[in-house]
Amino acid sequence: MIDLTLPQAFVSDFLNVFELIIIYRLVTGYLNRKIILVDFLASLVIICVPFLEGSLEFPLIMIHLWLFDRKHDRPQIIHNNIIAMCTIIVMISLTDLGDHYMYEIFLEGRKNISLLGWILPITDLILTVIVGILVILFIAPKVREVSIQILNPVPLWK
């Protein structure tokens, strides 16, 4: 169990939720300033609602993404939901792995983690920037190509 101070834990959880949503937006190609602001506020709401179980954040992220796609009448809503689930699974696994190793390397056994505890949110942010660059360069073009072909599925069967 990683013990952080309250501000560190809040920033870390908020960044995890916000980064998941932004990576999903990069994969699907629906990203602009207005959407970023809406996602920022939705991330704050998801984090500020007190839960006894922290794992309820991720179904709320899925519901937020589904409602947003539904409101804007996205044509491939089922395809986007599958992409959202895959994005959440991959990003949560990567951030948990990064948090675990950063905690083991820098924080384990330390008594005062008030300053070093900021390493975890910074590591998550750096990891998200790297994944975002990889998504923009490699994954998003393939997803767009498949999204276009889903509307006309004949080439997919050849």
From TrEMBL:
Keywords: Membrane, Transmembrane, Transmembrane helix
TM ranges: 35-56, 77-95, 115-140
Protein name: Integral membrane protein
Organism in which the protein naturally occurs: Limosilactobacillus reuteri MM4-1A
